[in-house]
Amino acid sequence: MRRRIVLSLLLVTAVLLVLGWRSWKASRPEGDLVLYGNIDIREVNLGFRVAGKVRDVRKDEGDSVQPGDVLARLDDEPFIREMEEAAAQVSTAEARLAQLQRGFRPEEIAQGTALLNEREATLTNADRVRLRKQDLATRRVVPTQELDDANAAYGEAEARRNSAKAALTLLNAGYRAEEIAQAAGDLARSRAQLASARLRLEDTVLKAAEAGTVMTRSVESGAIVQAGTSVIGLSLNRPVWVRLYVHEPELGLIRPGRKVRIYTDSRPDKPYEAQIGFISDRAEFTPKNVETTELRTQLVYRLRAVVNQPDDGLRQGMPVTARIERH
User: What DSSP character marks residue 252?
Assistant: First the structure.
């Protein structure tokens, strides 16, 4: 009797487990998570940083470019003249600073020394005359006027001697520190102007910073363009993103780093491998250009997947289908 009861309980338990497993399987979504979106490739408009006349444009729409390729050039003649003028100003400022730092020439100092010696001799002679006139005036041999003239000549000679001595002291001391500092500042300003002129000359050559494909060519040779005017529109080769949208109930299946298979209409049997890199934290309505099987008024979350090895088969705005394994 007890054995029958145990067998009955085991049978009921088994039936309940089977029914529960079937119910869970029926409620569990089958197949991959399917998302829809579009290819998103960065585009950049390239232009000159200076204004000028376009000499030539070397790339056409559809051309592939690599980093460092020359895309277009401006007429650089005015910029060369500007740089030459700035270089001449630097040379002048360097010479002026060197002159102030070295001080006066030895010939100028020698000339000042000779002048001082001459004034010293004149002063000595004037002093003898003054003393002689003073002695004669004391004995009333010469009139007082001659003594006054001798004293005046001595004072004048002494003043001229002092002036020559001060001038020689200035020659030996050289230029003032403030003058040297001003000359150094003028040189620094001239060098900065030369560097700016050289940079503007370099900016007459428009080069590609990254690899990509020329999408638009906005100007032709001979055109006068302002700084910043778009000359070449470039679509970059890397990175290539896929902009996708996922409904809120399926948001739990998405996380950064999950692998995604990207399918295009042109190669449905050869998917691209990608990884989810960004998930928006804000809900929005499904964009009209995204075709899904759900109602367009249903809120979705935008996410971005980065294609691992993109090729020319992926174009800007191309509609794609993404599949993500549910497990």
Answer: G
> Residue 189 carries which side chain, given as an amino acid letter?
R
Domain containing 150 equals 84-198
Strand partners, 52: 225
The pLDDT value recorded for residue 289 is 52
User: pTM for the complete prediction?
Assistant: 0.63
Whether pLDDT at 30 is above 50: yes
Q: Dump strand ranges (E) for the chain.
A: 33-47, 52-57, 64-65, 70-74, 205-207, 212-217, 224-225, 230-247, 259-263, 272-285, 299-307, 319-324
CB 213 within 8 A of CB 65: yes
Q: Are 288 and 296 in contact (CB under 8 A)?
A: yes
Residue 44 or residue 281, greater confidence:
44
Strand, helix or coil for residue 323: strand
Same structural domain, 162 and 134: yes
Q: How confident is the model over 200-240, as pLDDT tens digits?
A: 999 999 999 999 899 999 999 999 999 999 999 998 888 88
Instruction: Round to whole Å and give the CA distance between 240 and 212.
Output: 11
CATH of the domain at 282: 2.40.30.170
